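To: structure subgroup
Subject: Chain for Friday's discussion

All,

I'm putting the inputs and outputs inline so they're searchable in the archive.
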Amino acid sequence: MGKIESIIKSEILRLAKRELRATFLPLKRDVRGIKLRLSRLSKNFKTIDRLAREQIRQDESKKLKLEGSLEEAKASRFTPERIRLLRKKLGISQKDLGILAGVSMGAVASWEKGKFHPNLNKKATLVAIRKIRKRDVKKILSSKRIETKKKSPRAGKTKKAKGKGGRR
């Protein structure tokens, strides 16, 4: 009886393995195919990502620059009233115009009052500002504000209050 029992067990085991192979072989093929597709998609994604980064770098290099030619700056006539009208037309404050031109708000106020005139480089910048649209001015201002926030070392520092226990 023991021999028949072992033969039946081995036959059941053989048939069970056969059934498992028949069930899992197609699944194994599908998994291999999915892995290959995933690998191809990953490679495609990497190339697209690389191309996108290159495009972003190119766009940043072509970014709107506020540099006008010196010839145009020499020929331009920036009166205090025209500087004020330019600022009003763009809908920006004196501070914003100062950020764009690379000067202080006081310098812009002095230009608008007629106390001082912008130098040739700043006139070239004003000529360039005059050529761009209001939407582009807003973009440049927002990017310059972000740059100044990143560069600002004073952001986390505060002044110490002097108390009664000062130097003697």
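Points worth raising on Friday:
The chain has a mean pLDDT of 84.
The first helix runs from residue 2 to 61.

D.
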